[in-house]
Write the structure tokens for this entry.
Amino acid sequence: MARGLFSRGQEHPTFLTPGWRREKGAIMFLKHKPSGDLIEVLDLESLFDPFRTEVRGRFHAGEEMPEPAGFRKAEMIFLSGEHLPRCWVDPHYKER
């Protein structure tokens, strides 16, 4: 059974499962478009909520782990270069 999205210790991402919110090891990395640096998303619920325009995360660049900060979803993409799904960023995605 899939353990969660980007669970620690797994080589490949897996599908979300009903218990993903309780999974302590579930993490996701996205790319910050303006800088090209990796961002560890700390609040997956905010990421998936189309009514939230920012998510908490922290940069993964350099030697020291920075403090968490707010990042605009509009400035984030998947590591592959793909945009975030419309259902994560547009509250009216079903109307179009």
About this structure: The beta strands are 28-32, 38-41, 54-60, 69-72, 76-77. The CA atoms of residues 9 and 25 lie 9 Å apart.
